[in-house]
Write a structure and sequence with these properties.
Blueprint (H helix, E strand, L loop, with lengths): L1 H19 L1 E2 L9 E2 L3 H7 L2 H32 L6 H13 L2 H12 L5 H8 L13 H29 L3 H9 L4 H29 L3 H7 L8 H10 L4 H27 L6
Length: 276
């Protein structure tokens, strides 16, 4: 296991960091040299990077907010014991089970301007005469990308919230009802506080997913600059412009944000829930 981790994890991490400290362009293979932190400084001073960062933050905020709210209420609904609860649970998990690129292709047929289902629906009921270009402007495209990521992330959040809800002893609710607690008081005093550690796990995992969005953007708009985030910017810098040094530095910037969220994720996993 140590050998496998060393070859597949630790060595690539160290090698990529060494690339990020060099001027390394495949278009100039004879001019590879150590330049220190210049790649990082050049990236942080670039307008393209901050454009990608704005797109990343938009997707992050939208996805985390919507996924948390929808996942919480869907998880609460799935906790209700009904005859077809197993089928409902399987249907709810389906978007999470599909590959991200497939999800993007499916939603592209919904939002496409020409033959998209949503445009057919809007023109059919008379709300618009011309097809709406959902994928032609920056913010509408980012909104569509965020919706696709939310659709893929909600099932995991719902499962986490359902597990958190089922872990709360039923005696708490019975005692609260005997004491005359209303539904809102029971939710505010019992359900929400005891589910916060589970919500922390779900929010952190969703945040990492939102930062690392790639397949959905490619499926919806290709490799255009319109909705690129920092992960796609890193990919284009490395494999399109063949600038391995700057691309490696941008990869480490993405890794830095994911690492911060990963620390919160591990803390949420290690946090114990107190029922006292």
């Amino acid at each position: 296991m140590i050998l496998i981790m060393g070859v597949l994890v630790f060595y690539p991490i160290v090698a990529t960091f060494s690339y990020s400290l060099k001027k390394w362009k495949l278009t100039a293979p004879g001019d590879i040299r150590f330049i220190g932190l210049k790649n990082y400084l050049q990236i942080l001073g670039s307008d393209d990077f901050w454009y990608s960062m704005q797109n990343t933050l938009f997707i992050l905020v939208f996805v985390v907010a919507c996924t948390t709210l929808l996942g919480f209420f869907i998880g609460t609904f799935l906790n209700i014991r009904v005859r077809f609860s197993g089928i409902l649970l399987a249907l709810a998990v389906l978007p999470w089970a599909l590959p991200p690129f497939v999800n993007g292709i499916l939603w592209r047929f919904v939002f496409y301007s020409g033959y998209g289902f949503l445009n057919k629906l809007l023109t059919g009921i008379g709300l618009t005469e011309e097809p709406v270009e959902f994928l032609a402007s920056r913010w509408s495209l980012l909104l569509v990308v965020s919706i696709v990521v939310v659709w893929r992330s909600v099932p995991f959040m719902a499962l986490v919230c359902m597990a958190g809800r089922q872990s709360i002893p039923t005696g708490f609710y019975e005692a609260a009802r005997i004491d005359g607690g209303s539904r809102w008081q029971i939710f505010r005093r019992i359900t929400l506080p005891l589910m916060l550690p589970f919500l922390g796990v779900g929010v952190t995992s969703t945040s990492v997913t939102a930062i690392n969005v790639f397949d959905e953007i490619v499926a919806l708009s290709g490799y255009s600059d319109l909705a690129k985030n920092i992960l796609m910017d890193s990919y284009l810098t490395t494999f399109t412009f063949l600038n391995f040094g700057e691309g490696a530095a941008m990869t480490y910037i993405v890794l830095f944000f994911a690492l911060i969220l990963g620390i919160f994720y591990l803390r949420s996993l290690a946090k114990e829930v107190s029922y006292e």
